[in-house]
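WP5 quarterly update. Target: TetR family transcriptional regulator C-terminal domain-containing protein. Source organism: Streptomyces oryzae. Length: 185 aa.
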Amino acid sequence: MASDRRTLLADAALDVLAAEGIRGLTHRAVDRKAAMPPGTTSAYFRTRVALLTGLVTRLVQLDQEELQTMAEHLPPIRIAEELVDGMVLLTRQRLTGEARRRSLARYACAVESVRDPELREILVPRENAGREAVRLFLAGQGVTDVENRTHTLLTCIDGLVFDRLVSGGEVPREALEGLVAAALR
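Structure tokens (predicted):
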């Protein structure tokens, strides 16, 4: 099925991008990673822009699924400590295993999106269960300007994940506690 093949190729492109960076992302490299005959990737994604668009679309889909699954398996957030616990879990996920690969690819795509409005539009933060849980918690705590505070808090966490991808290690719990405390002020 064509959509299965496109998904397989987009996943292989994510692997290539995470391992080799934007310069290493070529149709041939994706063919090799996917164990497909030469020319397969270009048959499904004719241009480099089409390949990047397919990769970013798949990346966002996987991220949204991850956040939905996390939200479904965590109880509603009642106190700040529970919000910090969820953020610790999320940052650990984003720095290890499968999600680490996506984090590396996400940041490479974010840089590319500076010059490509179509990619930027796909990468714009989406509504998801995780974002909604943070928003509901902040609103329940009487925070004013919930939308901006939610955006700022999640952007700061994203920055901490980026920092730890580059420098190594985990995001310190104390840093997350500080961000939540700042959002609540």
